[in-house]
Amino acid sequence: MRMAIFGRAVPSSADTPRPGEPRNRWAGKRRTARWGRSAATVAAATIVLGFLGLFFAWPVAAIIGLGLGGGVSETLTNVRTWDLVAFTLGQAAASTALALVAGMPLAYVLARVAVPGKALLRAVITVPFVLPTLVVGMAFRTLLGTGDGGSTSALFGIVLANAFFNVSVVARTVGGLWTHLDRRTEDAARSLGACGLRVFTAVTLPALRPALGSAVAVVFLFCSTSFGVVLVLGGGTYRTLETEIYLRTVRLLDLSGAAALSLLQLAAVVAALVIAAVARRRRETALQLRSADDTARRPRGAEWFVVSAAGMVVLGLLVPIAGLLIRSVSTRDGWSLAGYRALSGTGSGAVLEVSGWEAAWNSLRTAADATWMSLLLGLLAIAVLVGIRRRAAAEVVDAALMLPLGVSAVTVGFGYLVTLQFLPGDVRTSPLLVPFAQALVVTPLVVRMVLPVVRAIDDRLRQAAATLGASPWRVRWEIDVPLAARSVLAAAGFGFVVALGEFGATSFLARPEAPTLPVAIARLLARPGELNLQMAYAACALLMLVTALAVLAVERLRVRTETVGEF
């Protein structure tokens, strides 16, 4: 290792032999250390890429092969298919536009305004993003009174619910870049006589364009692959590609048609990921050209209108949540806890094979398994990314790790049904199958939250530890682990919440005798009866409460610096 002193690269004490130690022996130690690090990187890469290959690439490739093998031409020439595509893209575009309009005031408040309780504000706007889509659908079903789908209110509810789910993506992503913009450019424009609106459109908005492009691409991706929201609110009339794949697989057993639809969806997902990657690179370039501005001030003048708009958005985020909680304790006969008491049973007509509390325990256990799996895979992946010296190779590996976050969970779960039957033993009945699927979604989040912290650690600390005789593993343990511990704990909590509410792949893979809480809610909604409906609302409220508590815990653990592109 070398350190720069007054512009010159000079050997550090870690690169020089100790007094009395032969140079050949020291050179051999350095070669051995490099070989050891290379071997550890190769081993970690083998584990991570092997897991991705077995539980992601193979199932997705099988779906592609099944779609190309038959039924694709018939599906692509069907008018109904393109109606699905049009509705999927249309509702995603409308939801994205609404999320963008609602998220911008919040982004401004997070970046530029000093308000009390900003940590609580961050937690409040993050809760909708990590809520299970099924719970969000139930909340808006209660708010709008859409029970059977097919009505105008159901369509409006789908757009509102998807926007509600993704407002925090806009607020946190755009707000992160807004924090790093230099105020002096805006102040110079004001000194030349530009009004506040002119300053925003001519100076601030062009600077924010990279983050806006990235946020729009990600939100559009999430809205186009929304599953639980459309399934609950759309009924049998409004369907997207995601719900149609599910219905064709589960109810119609049309595997070739579902695979052909998966191909269309996969093409849209890849396009959205490419746009997001380009926008992220532009955003990172923009940050290199501007100094960070972490100062926040009390609102003044026209800023009060923005703060008021942000307050209305926060209130709008709380209304569906409050409505769901009220609905869980209200019946035709008045206030009642019948739904919560019914969680100790299996529902009217024995809809479930286990009680609601057992389903909740299954969710906690499955989410815990998915969390430790994703932490193991994520930390190994981070070690690989940090160990790779070539930037191009590191970007390829990073893109491969992020791909499961964008590909539909329904497609992955469908792929499991097609491929895992060929593995030795009956893997499809293993209790670890659902955690494997959930870990695919959580691992990219772990990498995104922890990798920037590891890369930000001053390498001089590692050099100092090595100078004192610490081995490479001892250096990692004494330097990297303490500094990255908080971000690892925050990633674990955030991943646990995401796994807790995962529904797409879990709906395919959960066994009838071991359903998770989201799967149990879907089964209760599929069967008529007042008790089943009350039990479903109570289960939604329980899941939402656990999610909110976990998000508050994550907010307390998260790193105190604002990072761009948290999502």
From TrEMBL:
The membrane-topology field of this record reads: Multi-pass membrane protein
Q: Per UniProt, which keywords does this protein have? A: Cell inner membrane, Cell membrane, Membrane, Transmembrane, Transmembrane helix, Transport
Q: Return the InterPro entries for the record.
A: MetI-like (IPR000515), MetI-like_sf (IPR035906)
Database matches in Pfam families: BPD_transp_1 (PF00528)
Query: Which PROSITE patterns does this one have?
Result: ABC_TM1 (PS50928)
Set out the biological process GO terms recorded for this chain's protein: transmembrane transport
Name the segments for region: Disordered: 1-30
ABC transmembrane type-1 domain boundaries:
85-274, 360-555
The protein's matches in SUPFAM superfamilies, at most eight in alphabetical order, are given as: MetI-like (SSF161098)
A GO cellular component annotated for this chain's UniProt record is: plasma membrane
**Cell compartment(s), UniProt:** Cell inner membrane; Cell membrane
| Family of this protein | Belongs to the binding-protein-dependent transport system permease family.
> How is this protein named in the record?
Thiamine transport system permease protein
Provide the organism lineage as a comma list: Bacteria, Bacillati, Actinomycetota, Actinomycetes, Actinomycetes incertae sedis
